[in-house]
Design a protein that fits this description.
323 residues, alpha/beta, D-Maltodextrin-Binding Protein, domain 2, 9-stranded mixed beta sheet, 11 helices, binds D-malate, Tripartite-type tricarboxylate transporter receptor subunit TctC, Bug_dom1, receptor, signal, BUG
């Protein structure tokens, strides 16, 4: 029946892989979020996981594995069994960390299967509510005059808040004292409490705090003002030109996860991104779901590959590395 052992093994692999895909998912799925609970990545993940759970008929449990700008959580998934029961939802940091970290615990372009893009979230430059500068122009002047005093929160090297902060500091040609957290969820607590001065964070974490008057917003990193934050000027309006930063997010599985399971997850992601609750909550938080054409393995692979190439020279010239 089988010409060779290899053919038999291959056939068995196809059979079991196919059988596994047919009954998948038959138990709870874990989605690793590589930042602390309560932050923007966590917020996006919980909304998407809830909608995908409904579609798949199995619970997707969020596990927050923060640290090292998201690379600890990504490393956990890279080493997980490729059975479809461990997923990663991560953002642009997947691409920047490939250049920032000299000893990553995984090979970024070869350790994962790609499920699809989820959303591209704008950022906001925000401060504690009683921070003195009234607008972006005053903020830049104040930061230059008080560079040894002003503190800037981020979620570690490779985080979106780190990337935005790196761009901001190079724009104003002033290094600020950075205060690292395991996510901008806990960083936000300190910003609201006044323990730290500044942060650049995603609208999924800042919109409600800005609307509630708990923090001050200086700018959005978008070409146009956001419908969710109509009173917040763009960075360009504040004099920071070429300061458009979008934090794209994707879902990954460990390398070797079967194509059938990856396809099932991608189809479920596309449905979840059209879920009315996801669409509304994303809009309320200043972002929009990725369209079907982007919520695919091919689109995420292309995005990650191009973003690694885009940020490598920027990071190299900034001379920022993590060991
Ligand atoms: C978070 O979810 O905590 C943020 O994505 C951290 C960051 O990337 O700045």
């Amino acid at each position: 029946m089988f010409k060779s052992l290899a053919a038999a093994v291959a056939a068995f692999g196809v059979l079991t892989g196919g059988a596994a895909a047919e009954t998948y998912p038959s138990r709870v799925i874990t989605m690793i979020v590589p930042f602390s609970a309560g932050g923007p990545t966590d917020t996006v993940s919980r909304l998407v996981a809830e909608a995908m759970s409904k579609d798949l008929g199995q619970q997707i449990v969020i596990e927050n594995v923060g640290g090292a700008g998201g690379t600890l959580g990504a490393g956990r998934v890279a080493k997980a069994d490729p059975d479809g029961y461990t997923l990663l939802l991560h953002h642009i940091g997947m691409s920047t960390s490939a250049s920032l970290y000299r000893k990553l615990p995984y090979d970024t372009l070869n350790a994962f299967e790609y499920v699809g893009l989820v959303t591209d979230v704008p950022m906001t430059i925000v401060a504690r509510a009683n921070f003195e500068p009234a607008d972006m122009k005053a903020l830049v002047e104040y930061a230059k005059a008080n560079k040894d005093k002003v503190t800037y929160a981020n979620a570690g090297i490779g985080a979106a808040s780190h990337l935005c902060g790196m761009l901001f500091m190079s724009k104003i040609e002033t290094p600020l004292t950075t205060v690292p957290y395991k996510g901008t969820g806990p960083a936000m607590t300190d910003l609201v409490g006044g323990q730290v001065d500044l942060m650049c964070d995603q609208t999924t974490n800042t919109t409600n705090q800005i609307k509630g008057g708990k923090i001050k917003a200086y700018a959005t990193t978008t070409k146009e003002r956001l419908a969710a934050l109509p009173d917040v000027p763009t960075a360009a309006e504040g004099g920071l030109t070429d300061f458009e930063v979008g934090i794209w997010h994707g879902i990954y599985a460990p390398k070797g996860t079967s194509p059938e399971i990856v396809a099932k997850l991608s189809a479920s992601l596309q449905k979840a991104l059209k879920d009315p609750n996801v669409v509304k909550r994303f809009a309320d938080l200043g972002t929009v779901p990725s369209p079907d054409a982007d919520a695919t393995p091919e689109a995420l692979k292309a995005k990650l590959t191009s973003e690694i190439a885009r940020w490598a020279p920027v990071i190299k010239s900034a001379g920022v590395y993590a060991d």
